[in-house]
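Q: what does this look like with FE2/S2 (inorganic) cluster bound?
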Amino acid sequence: MPARPDDHLTIGEVIRRTGVPASALHFYERKGLIFSERGSGNQRIFPRHMLRRISLIIVAKRLDIRLSDVAEVFTTLPTDRAPTHKDWQRVSRIWKKQLEERRRAIENLEQELTGCIGCGCLSMKACLLLNPDDALGGRGPGPVRLQSAPPP
Ligand code: FES
């Protein structure tokens, strides 16, 4: 078998280096997050710089960043070389902002839940968790959720 270029890794090497299983690598590839090429004998080989992209995916998973958000940010990264230090700083700033927004949303929900503790009214009109911003108010009077529910 002819030697593959040093700047490429087999899927086995990628698995060993990253700890990411083959099924996940195939999934990320189908989602367009990473890319492979075909080597001699039609073997799947990965450009070495894909290790950085995979590292970013691992970090994103730890931060619970949605894969769709990872994909969005990856459209701004180079595909022919490893992301640079500057790329990583930009991506990490974006993800930090997303985490801050999520934290604020959780804090708001927590405040609303605190208002419900000890209440128990479960009012479609008054309860912020059941009817945030009185979103159901514009749909007319009565139990609009029950009225629009499909028959059992
Ligand atoms: S249960 Fe009464 S305000 Fe939510």
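The pocket of FE2/S2 (inorganic) cluster is lined by residues 115-116, 119-123, 126-127, 129 (CB under 6 Å). The helical segments are 11-18, 22-30, 50-62, 67-74, 85-116, 144-148.
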